[in-house]
TrEMBL record:
Protein name (record): Thioredoxin domain-containing protein
Keywords: Cytochrome c-type biogenesis, Disulfide bond, Redox-active center
Pfam families for the chain: Thioredoxin
CDD domains according to UniProt: TlpA_like_family
Biological processes per GO annotation: cytochrome complex assembly
Domain of life of the native organism: Eukaryota
Domain Thioredoxin stretches: 49-237
UniProt organism field: Entomortierella parvispora
Lineage: Eukaryota, Fungi, Fungi incertae sedis, Mucoromycota, Mortierellomycotina
Length: 242
């Protein structure tokens, strides 16, 4: 088959996610339905043949080239525990000296961290993470809403999932080009202190990762979607949700 057209790619994506991925995302481990998955594979094969593929396996190259068996194994295994409903970090309730931790980082952008606020929100992100940059304006809005009550601190580490040298200039350029979104303090974790002593211990493996620390106690770890604003409000109101 020649190079796919945008319309073909769209239809392949609809078939791949609609038939093979979305129906099985929540059916991992003991909830796995082997028969239904392989029926879905046959439906997918029919669909991609209609799109011009003689060998339906070729269509899988668009999404990383996994075989049907590999895809089945990944779906059956399920997502990391931190991305499952009801997950809670083992760090909840633990004490963290955030002032000491930030001394191990280098300040790059925004206000200095004073430690005057008893509540700190860490925004752990990376320059290659589009979702992190997209979420920054909302964090800036929260920083304005809770000014004087909560300190919002961005911690950037492009090696969050692999060992990389820290490119300070690249981070500065990213912050500058997105300065309207990042209106809060930002540090680079150039000694990997927060990476090793907070992020990895939190058990959360994605970015952005938000950590709420109230009176040095960790009270929230997660993506910012599930319960983040509620936990932040509870911290401000003096209620610890762990």
């Amino acid at each position: 088959m020649t190079k796919e057209t945008p319309e073909q790619l769209r239809e392949i994506g609809q078939a791949y996610f609609g038939l093979l991925v979305r129906p099985f995302r929540d059916k991992y481990e003991e909830n796995w339905d082997e028969e239904s998955f392989w029926k879905a594979v046959e439906q997918f094969k029919i669909k991609v043949r209609e799109l011009g593929y003689e060998d339906p396996r070729q269509a899988l190259t668009v999404y990383g080239g996994l075989s049907f068996g590999d895809l089945r194994d990944n779906l059956r295994k399920g997502p990391p525990k931190c991305f499952r409903k009801g997950w809670k970090s083992e760090m909840l309730g633990e004490s963290v000296d955030i002032t000491f931790a930030l001394r191990q980082c280098s300040h790059l952008h925004g206000p200095e961290f004073t430690g005057n606020e008893s509540i700190v929100v860490l925004d752990l992100w990376a320059t290659w993470c589009g979702a992190c940059i997209k979420a920054a304006p909302e964090i800036s809005e929260l920083a304005e809403e809770y000014v004087g009550q909560v300190s919002f601190v961005g911690i950037v580490n492009d090696g969050v999932h692999e060992d990389k040298e820290h490119d300070v200039q690249k981070v500065k350029e990213c912050l500058e080009s997105n300065r309207e979104g990042f209106k809060f303090a930002n540090f680079i974790d150039d000694r990997n202190y927060i990476q090793e002593n907070i992020f990895k211990k939190s058990g959360y493996s994605g970015v952005p990762c938000y950590i709420i620390i109230a009176n040095r106690v960790v009270m929230y770890v997660g993506s910012g979607r599930e319960g983040f604003k509620e936990a932040l409000k509870a911290a401000v109101e003096g209620t610890i949700m762990v």
